[in-house]
Amino acid sequence: MRAIDAGILVCAECHELNKQDADTDEQVCTRCGALVHARRPNSLVRTWALLITAAILYIPANMLPIMTINSLGKGAPSTIMSGVVDLVHYGMFPIAAVVFIASILVPTFKLVGIGLLLFSIQRRQPLSARQRIWMYRFIEFIGRWSMLDIFVIAILVAVVNFGRLASIEANLGAIAFASVVILTMLAAVSFDPRLIWDNTESDDDHD
């Protein structure tokens, strides 16, 4: 049985359990005074909006140069993929693998994963609640590694600054990539996982 079936609302701020008051349109938490809802208002709409925006920015994030390495007054901008290719060319396979996974695979999986999760809930696709919640938890888990490239660029820009001898500059691709990461993180946060159980028709999934 779900908490909502028993007339119990969970406060999103302090996690206090509140007895649902059917006579009140805007119920507040008895502990902290925050508004409590059976489900986050407009959760699917906000998540779709954030996800679509992230998907649009994902194109310039991969097409535009993410950074420029200047050496002796000469520099060549590089995209995420060209940077991976350069690392492979120089024999740095472990670093190339880390960059490829963190900058290509993880954002792609998050975009596709959240999209499939939303679509399966709205269209009631044949996915069990356990499959959906596993996907949601995995998306949350890998989200923390999406900023790896941005952290590396920020450190390199701050550390490697020797004037015309050698320097590294962040480009527009880094801004677009950081925006994609932030938007996908916000999409995962705005999604209410309780909707997964609301859209489950099998009683076995509630065990």
From TrEMBL:
Note one Pfam family from the annotation. Answer: PqiA
The protein's UniProt keywords, in alphabetical order, are: Cell inner membrane, Cell membrane, Membrane, Transmembrane, Transmembrane helix
Task: Indicate the transmembrane segments per the record.
Answer: 48-67, 87-120, 141-160, 172-191
Localization, per the record, is: Cell inner membrane
Q: Which residues form a coiled coil?
A: none
The source's domain of life comes to Bacteria
Q: Could you name the Gene Ontology cellular component terms for this entry?
A: plasma membrane
Q: Glycosyltransferase among the record's keywords?
A: no
PANTHER family, alphabetized: INTERMEMBRANE TRANSPORT PROTEIN PQIA, INTERMEMBRANE TRANSPORT PROTEIN PQIB-RELATED
Supply the name of the protein: Paraquat-inducible protein A
This chain's source organism reads Pseudomonas fluorescens
Q: Which gene encodes it?
A: pqiA_2
